[in-house]
Amino acid sequence: SRAIVLRDVSKKYDRGSYAVHRVSLAVEPGEFLVLLGPSGCGKSTVLRMIAGLEDVSEGELLLDGSYANDVPPRERDIAMVFQNFALYPSMTARDNIGFPLRLRDPGADHGLQVDATARMLAIEDLLDRFPSQLSGGERQRVAMGRAVSRRPSVFLLDEPLSSLDAKLRSHLRAEIARLTRELGVTTVYVTHDQSEAMSLGDRVAVLRDGVLQQVSPPRELYARP
Ligand code: ADP
Ligand code: ADP
Prior knowledge:
Blueprint: E1 4-12, E2 18-27, E3 32-36, H1 43-51, E4 58-63, E5 66-67, E6 78-81, H2 93-104, H3 111-120, H4 136-148, E7 154-158, H5 166-183, E8 186-191, H6 194-200, E9 203-208, E10 211-216
Parallel strand pairs: 3-8, 3-9, 6-7, 7-8
Antiparallel strand pairs: 1-2, 1-4, 4-5, 9-10
Helix pairs in contact: 2-4, 3-4
């Protein structure tokens, strides 16, 4: 079944305005879908509803074929990475990456899994450092490692590169493409950057003022009759 399905999903805030209005969208297992649009168009809200960090006001969310509107975030097989990394400052990179594994299974030794994850992100040499001892790009690598260490089936990224400089952005963009392919994980990637969307997405979903405009492979995006 489809990994993620949104059926006429809306997010309505207190004063009755819609941040997201009747979005319908299906993401296939292993697909890399980019959600593209200007700031304030509702991209984060869509992502946060998929993660369970925001309630769905109207419509239906299905995860792996099951109705998921009411499933708590912890019970969704989903990991999310944010723009500002949000690493635990008092933990080394190793402990940050191992954190979700300890949460799930406190007694076990997660060393091998942490090492395998670090290898995938080429951060083996950084494992004993604290976040304050890492550069921005290194922090984002560790944050991605923490997100994928327990091998979630869905990986959500909310503007993960926007606080990095241009050179790092293009480098990490390639890393993200490689990592998600290697993991075979279903990915939804939020950005306002068109070239990022075009280079990363199997398909690109364009959002404007909370409404889905079109969903197409990058090549067909601006080639409509
Ligand atoms: P994007 O991620 O595309 O920048 P957001 O999803 O963050 O957009 O925001 C979409 C819209 O919802 C914006 O107009 C924003 O002001 C509004 N919004 C976000 N969170 C809230 C909230 N808690 N209450 C009211 N409005 C909100
Ligand atoms: P992003 O980092 O994805 O742009 P932000 O959290 O910065 O998301 O919020 C995007 C927009 O949503 C901003 O304009 C912000 O003012 C607005 N917003 C966020 N939270 C609320 C809220 N609780 N109430 C009203 N507006 C909000």
